[in-house]
Amino acid sequence: MAELCTHGLSVEAGNQRLVDGASIRLVPGEFVALLGPNGAGKTSLLRASLGLEKKVIGRATIDGSDTAALSPMQRARHIAYLPQQRPLAWPNTVRDVVSLGRYAYGAAPGRLSAEDAAAVDAAIARCDLTALAQRQTDTLSGGELARVHCARAFAAEAPLLIADEPVAALDPRHQFRIMDIIADFVAAGGGALVVLHDITLAARYASRMIWMKQGRIVADGAPEETLTAARMAEIYGVQARVDGRRVEIEGAV
Hints:
By secondary structure, this protein is α/β, with parallel strands linked by helices. The chain has 9 helices and 12 strands.
């Protein structure tokens, strides 16, 4: 079974500790929301867990192997990663951009094996992009482009997905579409760790919530256990009314 684990992971930049002793675990069948205010250390935790950012202490492993010791291709076969910034170097067709997800297997757009092409077609269909497959990416809306990036990640056929703010700057309809796509991936046997700022959206979809503040994980558990008015005040400094998975923000503390 695919498994991403960190144990006591810490990350520093200069004299500042960005992540302090973080331990997380992600396996297939979980939809995990990573929550916390800006500057809490969420992105640094994700990057260090993947071996993309240097840790000062602690361990990060994928299926028991040190993530920092894996080649980019090896890592990509285990975990698909959607970073916050997803620039495209130049406009290209949707299908060619999604094909970049087959990098994990040494493929390149225009030189796809039958297996690669089938994986690309499946990812395009999963993200409802079949009708847009030959469109240039610079003609797409923000919501359509977000689905393209999801399809690119899914084309790798990795069992785990890490997505850093995949619904940022999207309108509510497209936020739900992206979250539904990720939820379908989890329902089909994948595992997802997703950074979100919308607590209501996180509560709607997540099976687990990991809460961070000032580089530390302060809670990790089911929404019903960890989503409370007291935690909203502790993490975000807001007054909130919480009823099960429903959250209503009332104002600053």
